[in-house]
Design a protein that fits this description.
- This protein has 29 helices and nine strands.
- The longest helix has 37 residues.
- Helix 1 packs antiparallel against helix 2 and helix 17 packs antiparallel against helix 18.
- The N terminus is likely disordered.
- The two termini are 64 Å apart.
- The chain is globular, with a radius of gyration of 36 Å.
- The strands form two sheets. It has a seven-stranded mixed β-sheet, with helices on both faces.
- Among the domains are: 105 residues, no CATH class; 188 residues, 2-Layer Sandwich (Alpha-Beta Plaits).
- The protein has 707 residues and is an alpha+beta fold.
- A hairpin with a 2-residue loop joins strand 3 and strand 4.
Length: 707
Amino acid sequence: MQGAAHAAGRACVFILSMMFRELLMPVFRGSMQASTQRRGHGDALGVPAQNLCPGWRLLLLICLLGCALPVLAAPDWKHWQAEFSRLQRSSLPEEAVRAQFDTLKAQLPPDPPYAVQRELAKVRIQLADTHEKTSEERKALRELALRNGDRDTAYLMQIGDIFDSHSDDNIEVSLRALDQVRLDTHSVSAEVRETMAMAYAYMYWDVGSFELALRHLLEAWNLRREVEDVDPALIVERAETLARLYVDMSDVSQALVMLDRADRDMPSSISLRQRTHLVATRGAAYRLSGRVKDAVDLMLPWLDRMPKGDPTNATQRLRQELARAYLQLGQAERAKAVATAMIDASASGSPYFKAEGEILQGAADAALGHVDAGLATMQIGLDYFEKAAHIVALQEGLRRKVEVLSAANRDHEAFVTLKKQHDLVLRMYDSNRAHGVASLQVEEGIARREREIRDLSSANTLQQARLEQERTRNVALLLASLLAIGLVVLLALLLYASRQQRKALWKDALTGAFNRHYFPHWLRKPRQHAGMVRAVALLDLDHFKTINDRHGHAAGDAVLHQVGHRLREGIDKHGEVFRWGGEEFLLVQDLPVQTDVEGWLRGLLGAFGPAISHAGESLQVSASIGCVLIPISAKPDANTFECASRIADLGMYQAKTEGRGRAVWLVMTDAGNNAWPWIFNITSDTVRNWQAKGWLDARTVLPQGQR
């Protein structure tokens, strides 16, 4: 913006100087000449008479103004970029932001540069009112960024799409997609790495993997120092998010540390929404630390400041924490009033808080003596959380239901609900089994609750024994027997599940091959033998989606199972097969230096010769393979294998380009070996560039009998 202003100023000075020199000075000189002539000195000043004619000077002035007008009238694009960027960070209501955006868009000059188009597209994404519209706008911005060489923005859009499309009950699909983006990103900005860390954190948080969520949140917190022009309000938001996670982890001291830091760094421009979130999180921390009265005194005046019926998430969180505090204080009437306000406000807001309000309202009704009605209301909220796969909220709701049932001496129903809560905890950790086994704290928490329920049951049994001693004795024996059997069965199931998880941690159950998470551990073991060279091959099944679409996913699973079996048979003790993702397999094989690599690849292709039988049908499957030999001088570390796998990936795509059902061996020359390790970005011309440098030669290998 300042550069454009300086350029315009210089143009104005230039035009004025030319006008003064060509118009005013001749007039001044003409008057001096006339005076001299009157004194009898003729043309003493040396100014020719024709210079007094102004016609050509007027023409020159018009030309100068015509040249300067484009400079003076050129749009200040930096100003427009700043305006659209300001809208993204605005704390105004959405309606006001939309109105300002429409006004700016109507005034925007034609043909804006990419930087302005990018900021404009970001505002469109922010204002999109449906998931489909958001995804469409992100796709458009990603394509625009790729056309302009902006990899960072393209990655940001891809990460946003992955996060928005994830679901708690199938989180592994989104995590694998995010892992793939992480593998593809090299030398990206701190903003991309921070956004990726936040996406990981929220997804792990959603399924209850708090430790993993905390690790990624702290990573994002540390990366904020590297982000250019970071918004101070964003730093406060990150601190509040960390504090909220610490609250969910019951680490109140750390939560209060982060909240104090947020208060200290809070800018004057912070929005009311962010301030409300900070108050709600601090109230939750006070409540968990036993300062329930302080929590109420903090949140109640703040809630009174908010518009009645406000459906925003920040205000709903404030109502949620206030209702919980009232329940903890035993003030069920007030808790019910706040919970009812949550439900009413959710008519035009999030159904999540409607379900939270129903659970809290039901708990308040139960505390007021209306146990059955309260449990029915709670079940409505629990049903929504179960259907929407909000696992953490469902677990908290079940915990509160167990408390209500225990207080009402309904032990059998409490046991049933506790079992469901236990199953949900196992499901939370099973969905993340590729990233670690379940924490023993889960089992300890269940055991603690079982002891509490068992103690309560014993107390009730002793009380009933005074009235019906014989009947109570029989019931107690039966209950003890069932409890013992249940504990034995539960322990056996836990031991069996633990063994199965340990066994399957590094194995892909469908193909029998190792999964890609085992690959870094496999690399740590020295496996290359003297006199041998290591081949890295990346294999992708051709038209696999067609098999799924035409014959069903069961047929696709049968193909993957059979392919994994055949590939493992084709690899000897000096190699290994990894399922790299989807229908891709990575093969690593140590071969004798003088081996026939083309023959080895032909053997791999031959494994796809026999058809695969499924449900009475014969499925003919082929594969495209890319292969490269790692230079003997290269270090057998992760960087070497990453470079080699990317080269093999290029070979695989060249095989697909040439017609599929073949292998492309990228043979490195002496020049290529000397240039190792290669540093490159993958483009459509990468292989041709390497061939032009004389680094490698591409050899196509067809199955036996084909030419």
